[in-house]
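Design job #97: recover the sequence.
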């Protein structure tokens, strides 16, 4: 070969990759468990913007792929899907209770999921990724189910046994504590392997459901009965006034 050409060592690509018709070189990295990808990307961007991009030849661009690219592509669609799911849940509640105020009360209980989910994401040191959003939707369904269990029994105590609102709410919270605890604990234990696996995709989903279910369970049996009493205590006064007049 040296008779027909000049041979010299040189760096070359292992393979030629094109994305959208452009030659591409990928720099890959795997994160350790409990390392926040958002913080890592932030530091990488700062270094690349200050040190790498100014030294690049003209026509060479830097783009970020992996989880960052995936989130940017999927999250807008996920938000739209979440809005549709929440709207369907509200319609189901209105159809079930046939009372707008009670449906809104159970619907608003979905906000209780935020505290547990945020605590789990914070204590485990993970990112709020696409799978975490899926977990939040599942968690909203669990909390709504617990609210239905609670208020169905509350209405039964008021209508069948003629208990006042405060007494009915208190008894419902006390007597429905066990079934709500058992169903919530079962749901939490079911996703525990996801939490312990440390997988970057499934751990956020399991973490949101695990911590969110356990913490929201406490709010359901304490906050919701009080909210029910505050919402319907005036109806007791009206009934009492009418009874006194009679």
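Job complete. Output follows.
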């Amino acid at each position: 070969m040296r008779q027909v050409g000049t041979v010299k060592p040189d760096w070359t690509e292992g393979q030629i990759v094109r994305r959208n018709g452009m030659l591409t070189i990928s720099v890959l990295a795997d994160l350790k468990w409990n390392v926040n990808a958002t913080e890592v990307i932030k530091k990488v961007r700062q270094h690349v913007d200050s040190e790498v991009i100014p030294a690049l030849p003209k026509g060479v661009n830097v783009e970020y792929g992996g989880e960052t690219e995936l989130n940017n592509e999927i999250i807008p669609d996920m938000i739209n899907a979440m809005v549709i799911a929440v709207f369907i849940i509200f319609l189901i509640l209105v159809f079930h209770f046939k009372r707008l105020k009670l449906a809104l009360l159970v619907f608003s209980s979905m906000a209780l999921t935020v505290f547990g989910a945020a605590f789990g994401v914070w204590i485990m040191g993970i990112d709020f990724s696409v799978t975490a959003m899926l977990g939040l939707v599942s968690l909203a369904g669990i909390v709504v189910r617990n609210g239905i269990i609670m208020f169905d029994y509350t209405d039964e105590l008021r209508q069948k046994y003629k208990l006042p609102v405060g007494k009915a709410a208190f008894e419902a919270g006390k007597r429905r504590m066990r079934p709500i605890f058992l169903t919530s604990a079962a749901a939490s234990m079911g996703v525990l392997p996801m939490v312990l696996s440390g997988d970057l995709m499934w751990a956020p989903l399991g973490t949101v459901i695990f911590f969110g279910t356990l913490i929201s369970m406490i709010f359901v049996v304490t906050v919701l009965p009080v909210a029910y009493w505050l919402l319907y205590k005036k109806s007791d006064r009206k009934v009492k006034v009418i009874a006194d007049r009679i």
